[in-house]
Amino acid sequence: MAEKNSGPMEMVDKAMDKIGGMLGKAKASNTSDPEEFVENAANGNRYELEAADIAMRRTQDARTREFAQQMKTDHEHAKSQLDSTLETHPDAPNLPEALDARRRKMLEHLEQAPDEEFDARYAEQQDLAHQETVKLFESYAEDGDHAGLQRFAKQMLPTLQQHLSRAGKLRDQTKH
C-alpha cells in the first residue's frame, strides 16, 4: 500500500499539480515545433496510461473505474497512432526515452493520495492534464511545422476534447 500524505502535504501536492498543469497549458498553447509537440504528446500519453493503471488498481468508485478504463483504451490507441505517424515520417522527431519529471511527480502524488481523496485527486489531475493536452493539440493542429504530425493532431483532437469534457464532469462528481 502506498504511503499516505498528511493533510498539509496533500494540499501541497495538489497545489504543485495545479501549478504544473497551468504552466504546461501555457507552454502547450504556443507549440509549432515538431520535437516539442512529440515530446509533450508522448509524455502526456504515457502519463495517461500510467494514471489509468493506478486508478484501476486503487479506486472503489464505478465512475472513476469506467473513466480510467476508457482512458486506457483511448490512450493505447493514441500511442499506436503516434507510433505509426512517426514510423511513416522518417523526418519526424523521436519519442522521448522516459516520462518527464513533472508528470512523474503527478503520478507520485496520485499514488500517495489517501484512499478517501484518491478519486477526487485522479479527477482533478485528469481535468488539468486534458486541458493541457487539448491546448497542445489545438495549437499544433493549427500551426504545426510537420504535416504528418499536424494530421495526427487534427485526428486526435475530437477524442481529447471529449476526454476533457468527461474529466470535468468526473471532477465535479468527486469533489469533496
Structural account:
80% of the residues lie in helices and 0% in strands. It has 176 residues and is mainly alpha-helical. The protein has one domain: Up-down Bundle (Ferritin). Helix 1 (7-28) packs parallel to helix 5 (118-143) and helix 3 packs antiparallel against helix 6. The radius of gyration is 16 Å and the shape is elongated. Mean pLDDT is 87; it is low at 1-5.
N/C terminus separation: 23 Å
CATH superfamily: Ferritin, core subunit, four-helix bundle
> Main beta sheet: strand number and arrangement?
none
The count of helical stretches stands at: 6
Rounded to an integer, what's the Rg over CA atoms?
16 Å
Which fold name corresponds to the CATH topology? Ferritin
Strand content: under 5%
Order of helices and strands: HHHHHH
Uncertain spans: 1-5
Structural class: mainly alpha
Shape: elongated
Q: How does CATH name the architecture?
A: Up-down Bundle
Number of domains: 1
How many E-type strands?
0
- Estimate the mean pLDDT confidence: 87
> Helical residue percent?
over 70%
The CATH class is identified as Mainly Alpha
What is the topological layout?
Elements: H1 7-28, H2 34-58, H3 62-88, H4 101-112, H5 118-143, H6 147-174
